[in-house]
Automatic annotation (TrEMBL):
This is UDP-N-acetylenolpyruvoylglucosamine reductase. It is an enzyme of class 1 (oxidoreductase). It comes from Halobacillus salinus. The lineage of its organism: Bacteria, Bacillati, Bacillota, Bacilli, Bacillales. The keyword Cell cycle applies. PROSITE patterns: FAD_PCMH (PS51387).
Length: 306
């Protein structure tokens, strides 16, 4: 039995067979439709299964990567070695008083809609964010003046040793599009949002307005990784890119959106290499023309070639 078979058999003791895939093509699971294969693609169905997989990875020194739906992530064409853990089956949403409790595999947009049904205000800003709740905490996602840190009460996490812990929002280092979650090596499995009672009509009005703004300005007709760059101090990334005459510029199947310059869309079966080359071209052009360094908001992980 080789090492890969041995790992597979150990995983079979921890999760159901249908929840472990070998050499799984990651582009099939990502919002961006980009990325090579994962050696092992694991979809746990409970906190305990997450803990057990993490403990196995630690004991056998197997690298593991946590993956949401990849709405703000680019995976290189060579894929990811070791284990990729995806929490799509942890998607329960419930209420506790004025709090909405959401497992990390649920989409933040669904948490926002659930809060509307419960007449709880505070998550309206998230009504158009396509990422998972875990991913939203990982990068302190935000839109239209709101962000996760404004409403997060606490998170339940599995730490790098496989322990299930409660972390208050103040412990997570939430700042503009960042947190200390990756540095700690935590896996968020649940989040609690402290919201404010309101009326269905008032919340719906705000959400409808934000949805209109999003749909009229963002290129939702193509896969993309969302807003590619962070907002540089004193500027807007999209305006700098637009003023650099980069809209419509393409490399391979990747294109700077003609609808919103801050987005790069997968217009024609782009490879990750296409995406990264275009991102670097945009950064260089803006730097040469305006002297401004555009910092990526989107993460890039994985290997160039397996």
């Amino acid at each position: 039995m080789n090492i890969k078979e041995a790992i597979y058999h150990k995983l079979m003791e921890l999760v159901k067979e249908e929840n472990v895939k070998v050499d799984e093509l990651l582009k099939n699971h990502l919002y961006t439709k980009l990325g090579g294969k994962a050696d092992f693609f694991i979809t746990p169905t409970s906190f305990e299964e997450v803990q057990n997989v993490v403990k196995l990875a630690k004991e056998d020194k197997i690298p593991f990567t946590l993956l949401g739906n990849g709405s703000n992530l680019i995976i290189r064409d060579g894929g990811i070695r070791g284990m990729v853990i995806n929490l799509k089956h942890l998607d329960r949403i419930s209420t506790e008083g004025d709090s909405v409790i959401v497992q990390s595999g649920a989409r933040i947009i669904d948490a926002s809609r659930f809060a509307l049904e419960q007449e709880l205000s505070g998550l309206e800003f998230a009504c158009g964010i396509p990422g998972t709740v875990g991913g939203a905490l990982y990068m302190n996602a935000g839109a239209y003046g709101g962000e996760i840190k404004d409403v997060l009460d606490y998170a339940m996490v599995v730490d790098r040793h496989g322990n299930l812990l409660k972390r208050d929002a103040s412990e997570l280092g939430l700042d503009y599009r960042t947190s200390n979650i990756p540095q700690r090596g935590d896996i968020v499995v649940e989040a609690a949002f402290k919201l404010t009672p309101s009326t269905y009509d008032e919340i719906k009005h705000v959400m409808d307005d934000l949805t209109f703004k999003r749909e009229s300005k963002q290129p939702l007709e193509y896969p993309s990784c969302g807003s590619v760059f962070k907002r540089p101090p004193g500027y807007f990334a999209g305006k700098l890119i637009q003023d650099s005459d980069l809209q419509g510029t393409s490399i391979g199947g990747a294109e700077v959106s003609t609808k919103h310059a801050g987005f790069i869309v997968n217009k024609d079966d782009a490879s990750t290499s296409d995406y990264i080359s275009l991102i670097e071209h945009v950064q260089k052009t803006v730097k040469d023309k305006f002297g401004v360094e555009l910092e990526r908001e989107v993460r890039i992980i994985g290997e160039d070639h397996k």
